[in-house]
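Example 423, ligand magnesium ion.
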Amino acid sequence: MAVNLLLGLQWGDEGKGKIVDVLTKNYDIIARFQGGPNAGHTLEFDGIKHVLHTIPSGIFHDKAINLVGNGVVIDPVIFKKELDNLAKFDLDYKSKLVISRKAHLILPTHRILDAASEASKGKAKIGSTLKGIGPTYMDKTGRNGIRVGDLELSDWKERYRNLANKHEAMIDFYDAKIEYDLEELENEFFAAIETLKSLTFIDSEEYLYQAQKEGKKILAEGAQGSLLDIDFGTYPFVTSSNTTAAGACTGLGVAPNKIKEVFGIFKAYTTRVGSGPFPTELFDDDGETMGRVGNEFGATTGRERRCGWLDLVALKYAVHVNGVTQLMMMKGDVLSGFKTLKVCTAYNYKGKTITHLPYNIEPENVTPVYTEMKGWSEDLTKMSNKSEFPKELNEYIEFLEKELETPITIVSVGPDRTQTIHR
Ligand code: GDP
Ligand code: IMO
Ligand code: MG
């Protein structure tokens, strides 16, 4: 059976958690393939809001197995907190959650290194979530990392000590004057490791191979968004993993020819949290309205998200890089009440009009060229069928489908599971 992928097409927070939760009933396995606790995936149902960071968004369903893939980086301390939060929901998560032995561990010193690196950058900081993501992936590619499977070795604490000692020297090198109590952080870390060890560790690539052979249905859940991809994002203002479709192959051990549908998720407008260029960013009342109505605050850090109009130049790029086969448009309800909607369909780039994403989208190089569309005033949040959509919303959707040459198969009209309309 084929593997389907679900990915964010913008700068993250598109609503991946919500849609994975909605789709889980159709799948046997939900697998996270990259990122770590920098992600914050929100699910809402039965009047309760849940935020997951490392645990896949299928965990609230009875049947599906949730797999944390080899491409993910795990902070045992945050992972334990997530599990503690689930404890009150009678989920029997131990039988539904499996972890790749090849996933790398975020150590307390990785978090401190992240903070020291950001502090040393001053104004040029990435705006990292400070969860230790960059330093952990650096140790992975530098071939120094500690993996989940190492916890089964008798000398893993020795390996830990060697790496932590090296990190301490690196932290000193930054001279960033970060205060921390390593002993306290380590006590918390080692306690959380015991919790992690109570879960099932697997050779996940083999597990997924057998699952495919048995005809099981697998959905790979992305974190972050395509414009935060280490190769294809707005470098250096990106995260440290491949958030695009290829990341699912390396982050799970799934062969490219086994991937079938690629679901690309986007907001009906654009948001970004952290630093970096954002051509359609708004600094006026319209941007303020999007942030307020859309409740645009980071699910992981609580930071205010920057808001702006939909950027079709960037979105088209993400559709191409990922080979998106179906689009899902989120938060259309937030745009209700705007008399006119703007969609960026080209960039003015160094005096020329271009429709592809150039190497450098810093504001001094790029000015967005907008197409204006009529907005709608109807409240979408109570709608349950596409036949109720206002004419202007249909025009907006059809315009995007034409520009992106890809069908929009789901329109989300609110944060709740039930506020999801299939087209
Ligand atoms: P993720 O990281 O892609 O899973 O997205 P986040 O959870 O970080 O951010 C999406 C936010 O929008 C969450 O607060 C969701 O509850 C909320 N949300 C998702 N879909 C919709 C929608 O269609 N309308 C509205 N108003 N909120 C939504
Ligand atoms: P989800 O999965 C939005 C951003 C950070 C920062 C940059 C690098 O919820 O969509 P990092 O901590 O990875 O070193 O931060 O990437 N960022 C996200 N923005 N959603 C996310 O995840 C993000 N994960 C990282 O704000 O700009
Ligand atoms: Mg998020």
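Summary: The pocket of 6-O-phosphoryl inosine monophosphate (ligand 2) is lined by residues 8, 11-13, 35, 38-41, 126-129, 131, 133-134, 223-225, 228, 239, 273-274, 299 (CB under 6 Å).
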